[in-house]
Amino acid sequence: MDSPLPLDVDHSHLLPGARLSCSEGDPPSAGSPAEALVRFGDGAEAPASLDVLHETAGRYLLDVGPYETAAGTDMPAKAWVVEATGEQGCGWTLLVKAKAG
Questions:
Q1: DSSP state string for 25-68
Q2: pTM
Q3: How far is C-alpha 35 from the chain's CA centre?
Q4: Contact 63/79 with Cβ under 8 angstroms?
Q5: CA–CA distance, 90 with 101 (Å, rounded to integer)
Q6: Per-residue pLDDT of the chain (101 residues; tens, 9 = 90+)
Q7: Which has the least CB within 10 A, 7, 9, 82, 99?
Q8: Which residues pair with 35 in a beta bridge?
Q9: Positive or negative CA dihedral for 64, 67, 70, 74?
Q10: What sign results for the dihedral spanned by CA atoms 21, 27, 28, 29?
């Protein structure tokens, strides 16, 4: 079993404009959703899945499970539309565009 894609974000929660960086693996391809682990800036983690919404546009659906922030706030499960930024470096980056649904 493969380990989940580590998606790091500097914030304690996701919001439009937040950037998620991944230093390992590749974005999933259409028809092959990937398990992910969102690692928040405060040290909290949440299980997630990343699936292609529009392959040619680099848009994905990030479905994040419930989690608790380091400050003890319960965050419900949410889905987000994210987009590949094309930024290079030590991996790849996604930009949170909007809450899905």
A1: S-PPPTT--EEEEEE-TTS-EEEEEEEEEEGGGTEEEEEEPPEE
A2: 0.89
A3: 10
A4: yes
A5: 31
A6: 478 999 999 889 999 999 999 988 777 888 888 999 999 999 999 999 999 988 777 899 999 999 999 999 999 999 999 999 876 556 789 999 999 97
A7: 99
A8: 49
A9: positive
A10: positive
Question: Residue 48 contacts by C-beta under 8 Å, 6 or more apart in sequence?
Answer: 4, 7, 35, 36, 37, 38, 62, 63, 64, 65
Looking up tokens 């899945």 gives 49
Q: Which amino acid is at 12?
A: S
Identity of residue 34: A
79/84 Cα distance (integer angstroms):
16
Residue 32 CA to chain centroid, in angstroms? 15
Tokens read off for 100: 């899905």
Distances in Å between the alpha carbon of 50 and those of 58, 62, 65, 73? Answer: 12, 5, 12, 24
The bridge status of strand 5-9 relative to strand 34-39 is parallel
